[in-house]
What we know:
The protein is built from seven helices and three strands; from the N terminus they run H-E-H-E-H-E-H-H-H-H. It is mainly alpha-helical and 152 residues long. It folds into two domains: 1-58, 3-Layer(aba) Sandwich (Ribosomal Protein L9, domain 1); 60-152, no CATH class.
Amino acid sequence: MEITHMRYFDLHDIIAEETMIETTFSIDKSLISEYIIDDHINLYYLKFLLENDHCSVINPLDSIRNELLAKADIVNVNNKSKEFFLLLTKLDEDEVFSIFADRASEFLKYIFLEDFNDDDQVNMDIKEKELYIKARKKYMEYNNFHKIFKKE
């Protein structure tokens, strides 16, 4: 009997695929589906339409690009998508590193705070939170280790 391995789907990837993206249609959208509301469609459905030249994407960053450039850390990317950076990698890889680097440099200060709390994470997406929580734990381990050996 051969053992088979089940393939698990990444929940974050599924959520990103469900994100609604604003589009413009080159054909009558009622020919595609009666369920398209306000020119927003799911990313997984959008891929098919793009491949067949039935629509084009209104750049998902246009609505928040200026805000991110002005003050990256105060923009709540969760308003766009809980999986903001995963969504960006699916849509516009050129922008991802630049935006992430700007936000990372701003959020880096939170790693060193003594009273780090949930309010400090409000504007972070899922991946940012994971990264900063791991970095915070490592910093606290380092800090606690060195406190033991400090001479007072």
